[in-house]
Amino acid sequence: MKTQPFTLRTRSLVAGLLVLPVAQAALAQAPAGGRGAAAANFPRIDTLAPIPAALSSLLTIGQQNAIDAVNAAVADLNTAATNARTALTAASLASPDNPADLTAKAAALATAEQALAVARADRLVQLQAGPDRVAEASKAAAIARLTTATAGGRGGAGGGLGGPILADDDKGFVSIFDGKTLTGWDGDPRFWRAENGTVVGESTPDKVVDVNTFLIWRAGTVKDFELKAEFRINGTNSGIQYRSKNMTEVGPWVVGGYQADMDFANMYPGQLGEERGRRNIMVRRGEMMRIDDTGVFKLLGTIGTPAEIGNSFVPNGWNSYHIIAKGNILIHILNGRVAMVAIDEQDSVRAREGIVALQMHVGQPFKVEYRNIRLRTLQP
Fold it and tell me: Which residues partner with 262 through β-bridges?
């Protein structure tokens, strides 16, 4: 086959690259905005702990939907560009050569690609003027979602090699606190109340906690699950119990079992405890630990230092907990940072199912608040 001029044969490649620069330019035209809240349906009182740097580039759910809408709006133009690219490829492989047809097909592809890029850019400019505008840190993820959906290479909008990574959302989660009452919960009324969208636990000099007491969720038990909650504490110690048991032989609101720990001094947030169990501190922040079938603790590795993980904690401010329990694997995520991983193989004593509860700890008077408590059941 006779070789055509280099510039003619590469026109299709040049045309095919039109989309990415135009998309990048369009995203850069409008000022970058703040990151939207993925769980906007839940009540907010004030700001949460800052988003970790590792998560700052992820798109919010609203941004993902807006970019998907851009792709949907230009679907016909994208089909036309794909067809033009196919036609140019066929013309390039034709034998004998037809230079005139090759030139025409390359020109048609360039026109189709330019129309697609301009239409997409117009939509992106509109996106950047709205509430789901894409912040600077998230632009690479936005471009990946725009281009991998139709680029025809490995990976697509749905994932695969090099596919975009999306922010987690609350799909499948159910709120277990209505924000107004303690319906479905049971605890000592001297210490627990619902107020301004939060569960409040508070002790005072006149109302002293002499034995750790708990607000117990009575509407069900948890086995394999994810739980998300936000908390604020101004002193002493608290925690979220899960797969736990109500120890009525000790007291009506006494609980024992796994605990996502927290304290005001920032020594414990993120770690795994076991109230009235094998060890008060089971796995510290930054550890990935195996508890073998004989009860021996074996350090598998580290995921950071306690100080690194604790840096995200906000004393007197709102912090987030994400607890995952699947089989004998337990994961705590504090303010978006994986804080602890435990593999509990001690079948003779480990908990497989139990209650959720919130702790009021003995000690000096203090106040702890919880809000946006959401639960998602995982399939076995």
Answer: 238
Give the burial string for 63-91 (b: 16+ CB within 10 Å, else e). bbebbeebbeebeebbebbeebbebbeeb
CA dist., res. 147 & res. 143, Å (int): 6
Q: What are phi and psi of 222, to 5 degrees?
A: -120, 145
The residues pairing with 290 across neighbouring beta strands, listed in sequence order, are 298, 343
CA distance 267 to 33: 34
Give the separation between CA 366 and CA 193, rounded to whole angstroms.
Answer: 14
What are the phi and psi torsion angles at 136 (to 5°)? -55, -45
pLDDT per residue over 72-100, tens digit each? 899 899 899 999 999 998 988 888 889 89
* Residue 303 identity: I
Helical (H) or strand (E) element with 108: helix 99-128
> CA 324 to CA 331: how far, in whole Å?
5
pTM: 0.71
